[in-house]
């Protein structure tokens, strides 16, 4: 997966994660994209370590589930660190 598709995945996954956590994450779309991309990295790493799967392609359901799950985790930790509610 290329850089542009990875950033797009991060933006969308971060937006979905913000909806799941009821907007606890960063404010701007740039912050959402960066936190979402970080979440995609975390989700890909955890998926590889725990389940033996990785971020394959942009249109893979596994990729989306890992990216969204990682983004929820990153946004939750971010909200704990910054004290946002």
UniProtKB/TrEMBL annotation:
InterPro entries: Transgly_assoc
Entry's transmembrane regions: 27-46, 58-81
GO CC annotation terms, alphabetical: plasma membrane
Locations listed in the record: Cell membrane
Pfam families referenced in this protein's UniProt entry, alphabetically: Transgly_assoc (PF04226)
Membrane topology label: Multi-pass membrane protein
Keywords attached to this entry: Cell membrane, Membrane, Transmembrane, Transmembrane helix
Family: Belongs to the UPF0410 family.
Protein name: Transglycosylase associated protein
Lineage: Bacteria, Bacillati, Actinomycetota, Actinomycetes, Propionibacteriales
């Amino acid at each position: 997966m290329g850089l542009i598709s990875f950033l797009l995945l991060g933006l969308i996954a971060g937006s979905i994660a913000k909806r799941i956590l009821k907007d606890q994450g960063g404010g701007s779309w740039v912050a959402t994209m960066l936190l979402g991309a970080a979440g995609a990295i975390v989700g890909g790493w955890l998926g590889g370590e725990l389940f033996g799967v990785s971020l394959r392609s942009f249109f893979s359901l596994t990729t989306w589930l890992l990216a969204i799950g990682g983004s929820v985790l990153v946004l939750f930790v971010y909200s704990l660190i910054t004290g946002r509610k």
